[in-house]
Amino acid sequence: MLAEFGNLALVLATVFAALMAVLGFLVNAENSHWSTSLRRATQLQVLFTFSAFLILISLLVISDFSVAYVVQHSNLRSPLFYKVTAAWGAHEGSLLMWNAVLAFWALSLFKLKNVPALLIDKSLAIQGLLLFGFLLFTTLTSNPFVRLEEIPLNGMDLNPVLQDPAMAIHPPMLYLGYVGFSIPFSLVVAMLWTGDMQQATLRWIRPWVVVPWIFLTLGISLGSWWAYYELGWGGWWFWDPVENASLMPWIAGTALLHSLAATEKRGLFLHWTLLLAVMAFAFSVLGSFLVRSGVLISVHSFASDPSRGLFILALFALFVGGALTLYAAKTPIGFTSSGFKAVSRESVLLLNNLLLLVMLLLVMLGTLYPLVLEALGLGKISVGPPYFDYVMLYVSLPLLFFLAVGQRLNWKGLGKYANELKKSLLLSLVLASILTLLFGVVLKSFSFLTIVSVAFSIWIIFSALQVILKYKLEKKSLGFSQFGMFVAHIGVAVFALGVALSNQLANVDTKAVVLGQTVEVGGYQFDFTSLEQDKELNYQLTRAEFVVSKNLQTVTTLNSEKRFYPGRQTSTTEAGIHGGFIRDLYVTLGEPLPTAIEGQQAWSVQYQVRPFIRWIWLGTIFMALGGLIAIFDKRYRTKTLKKGSRADV
Amino acid sequence: MSKRIIVWLPLLVLIALAILFYKGLYLDTNKVPSPFIDKKAPSLILPDLLNPQQQVNLADWKGQVVLLNVWATWCSGCLLEHPVLNAIAKENLAPIIGLNYKDNSQKAKEWLQKSGNPFTAIPNDLSGEVAINWGVYGAPETFIIDKQGVIRYKFIAPISLDDWKNKLRPLVIQLQGERL
Amino acid sequence: MSKQLNIILLSLVICLCSVTILALDTTEFSDAKQQARYQALTNELRCLVCQNESIAGSSSELAQDLRAQVAEQIKTGKSDAEIRTYMTERYGDFILYRPLNAGKTRLLWLAPILLLLLFCVIFISIVNARSKAIIEDEEVV
Question: pTM of the prediction?
Answer without folding.
Answer: 0.92
